[in-house]
Amino acid sequence: MFIDRIKVYVEAGDGGNGCVSFRREKYVPRGGPNGGNGGKGGDIVIIASSDLNTLIDQKYHRHYIADRGAHGEGKDMYGRGGEDVFIKVPLGTIVYDFESNTLLADLIQEGDRVVVARGGRGGLGNAAFATSVNRAPKFAQPGEKGERRWVLLELKLLADVGIIGLPNAGKSTFISCVSAARPKIADYPFTTTSPNLGVLSYGRYKSFAFE
What we know:
Blueprint: E1 2-11, E2 44-49, H1 56-60, E3 63-65, E4 85-90, E5 93-97, E6 103-107, E7 113-117, E8 148-157, H2 171-178, E9 198-201, E10 207-210
Parallel strand pairs: 1-3, 2-4
Antiparallel strand pairs: 1-8, 2-7, 5-6, 5-8, 9-10
């Protein structure tokens, strides 16, 4: 068994700003405020998938940033929400907050998910602040910042393929040639004193581990 750990940066989208706007139409004096609210920023969501069995994709893609929400507009038009970003990981992946080492989730079943960074709330437009006392508010709220953090993904790997051979037969050399593993290689027997696990990727979202 081999424990694979990958640190990734996640940044949710900021919320859109609210809009300050007033209705201006012919024959409609004192139209009143009609500034729309800003859209919510996109979330970063980690999902467990049985299609994967390693964290090799996260090794080459360590920064995930979601879209921000669009700003509100006049005529009571709300801003569009930012699209969420989904990160697929293998079943059995444990998610930690890197700074505090707090356990965020243990994803063990197909479809298990956790929101690791929440998008910022959109700001309210001036139409939302209209009251019987203040009928023409000239202010709106800015959007909130999205959450951002480093998270640690930890996966306990069991090798899918075991390589068996005599001492000094070239097992470690083979692993170093077909994967990114770097075992100790020398010209004397029993160079490898502890198991070395390599991961071979083939096709899209396909890989297997060997030892």
